[in-house]
From TrEMBL:
Residues 1-18 have a biased composition (Basic and acidic residues). Residues 1-38 are annotated as: Disordered. One of its GO terms (molecular function) is nucleotide binding. Belongs to the Gfo/Idh/MocA family. Transmembrane segments: none annotated. Residues 42-163 form the Gfo/Idh/MocA-like oxidoreductase N-terminal domain. Residues 177-452 form the Gfo/Idh/MocA-like oxidoreductase C-terminal domain. InterPro entries: Gfo/Idh/MocA-like_OxRdtase_C, Gfo/Idh/MocA-like_OxRdtase_N, Gfo/Idh/MocA_Oxidoreductases, NAD(P)-bd_dom_sf. This is Oxidoreductase family, C-terminal alpha/beta domain. It comes from the Bacteria. Signal peptide: none annotated. It comes from Pedococcus cremeus. It holds the Pfam family GFO_IDH_MocA_C.
């Protein structure tokens, strides 16, 4: 007997509602229509409508009518209502948590999971068992074992799993890969890659914010730089064999606090001269079009001076960066040995401006240099350097990761809408392999040993 879930869909009749009915067509999966395009928009649920989930929802609207937000699950009522209203999601498809959404009758084809990292395993497993194709925010999970469990759950359920490695999809990444494939620099030998997290971005997310504790969220190499380790593998296109890593928490510690520093920035006599002042950072974000606006909205979603004052007085984002309840590294380096003798060096630092990544790719016939805005290709034979200007947004999450957020969502929609997983390069199994490099590097940092991947 043929499994109905394995039959290709008839593009002229699949899951069509009766004439005159307002009942939406039944949900479908990528596996249901291989190589055949859907005849209606892809319906996507948002599980976690915080900063990342809300941003991905907006990008769904930019896919030329090929996708719509069909449901919203968010614990904060005001945020849930606002995001639902923005995307015309009715009351019946608004849920107070992801658990309510997954327990309800399924109306969406796919779900974007953007809840806290520690909840990824439970959420991804539940949505896979409920039949949803999944786009999972990175990192997949705080531990390597949980990452494996997520991939196995999705494969067992036969659903598609994609992971939000947005750097793969940026315009400058596409240009770099084109240059490499064309032979512009010969064979890659070595790559140097810097992630300049940015002083106030690091203070927001990794000192005061949700990713300040390695026991709760995981090491910073996982929560911040799994993007970059994945990107290196995507560029080098070889399996990693072994890694070594060094790093520590150097500055954001109680013993580094200026004399007289208070527990909260609002009460601190040294706040005017502190580069990590929460008062300064988040008040700047109240101004229209300020780069800090994305981060201020996390602290005080109402974006009013009164709401911000209350959040700085009562919440974690108003605390001194030297208060001592954070433990993730503020600087780290990773050396990676790839198959065929290729090597890469990665460096993460909190002590930079908020700017794009900096990369140099050394080949046998030339060198590629990029800052995310431009790509320079130097030819050893002619000794000429050609500049390629890439039009993109800024580097941070609030600025769309240099165009990667929008392009990744477009690729996900294309894969599911056209029944062709090859449009989306960061599938679950691929992401699992690059996550394994991160976990191996962290073991190296903690033990001082070279660790095989």
């Amino acid at each position: 007997m043929t499994d109905p879930d394995s039959r290709p869909l008839d593009p002229g009749s699949h899951h069509r509602a009766e004439a005159g009915s307002t009942t939406p067509e039944a949900p479908v999966n990528l596996r249901d229509h291989p190589g055949t395009s859907m005849t209606r928009p892809l319906r996507v649920a948002i599980a976690g409508a915080g900063a990342r989930g809300a941003a991905y929802a907006r990008h769904l609207r930019e896919c030329g009518g090929r996708a719509v937000v069909g449901a919203v699950a968010e614990t904060r009522p005001s945020t849930r209502v606002a995001v639902a209203a923005e995307h015309d999601v009715g009351q019946s498809q608004q849920f107070s948590c992801w658990e309510e959404l997954v327990a309800a009758p399924r109306t969406c084809d796919a779900v974007i999971i953007a809840v806290q990292d520690r909840d990824h395993l439970k959420a991804a497993t539940a949505f896979a068992q409920a039949g949803y194709d999944i786009l999972l925010e990175k990192p997949m999970a705080p531990t390597e074992a949980e990452c494996w469990q997520i991939v196995e759950a999705c494969e067992s359920a036969g659903v598609f799993l994609g992971v939000c490695h947005v750097l793969r999809y940026t315009p400058y990444t596409r240009l770099i890969r084109e240059q490499i494939r064309s032979g512009a620099i010969g064979d890659i030998v070595n790559v140097q890659h810097l992630e300049p997290v940015g002083s106030w971005h690091f203070a927001h997310s990794y000192v005061r914010g949700s990713w300040h504790s390695s026991s709760d969220a995981g090491p910073v190499l996982l929560t911040k730089s799994s993007h970059d380790i994945d990107w290196l593998s995507y560029i080098i296109d070889r399996p990693a064999l072994r890694v070594v890593s060094f790093g520590s928490l150097h500055h954001f510690r109680p013993d580094q606090a200026p004399e007289g520093a208070a527990d909260r920035c609002l009460d601190c006599p040294v706040e005017p001269t502190c580069p990590y002042s929460a008062v300064r950072i988040y008040r700047r974000g109240l101004h229209p079009a300020a780069r800090e606006g994305y981060f201020t909205a996390v602290v005080a979603p109402e974006l009013t001076p009164e709401a911000l004052e209350r959040a700085l007085r009562e919440g974690p984002y108003g605390r001194c960066v030297y208060s001592g309840d954070n433990d993730v590294c503020d600087h780290q380096i990773v050396g990676i040995d790839y198959e065929d003798g290729l090597t890469a060096g990665f460096s993460l630092s909190a002590f930079t401006p908020v700017e794009n990544r900096h990369t140099r790719i050394f080949g046998t016939r030339g060198q590629i240099t990029t800052d995310g805005n431009s790509v320079w290709v130097h030819d050893f034979l002619t000794q000429r350097t050609t500049e390629h200007v890439v039009t993109a947004a800024g580097a941070s999450a609030g600025e769309g990761h240099a165009g990667g957020d929008a392009a990744m969502i477009e690729a996900f929609v294309q894969a599911l809408a056209e029944g062709d997983a090859s449009h989306f390069s960061s599938d679950g199994r691929t992401s699992l392999m690059t996550h394994s490099i991160v976990f191996a590097a962290e073991r190296s940092r903690l033990t001082g040993a070279v660790v095989e991947v």
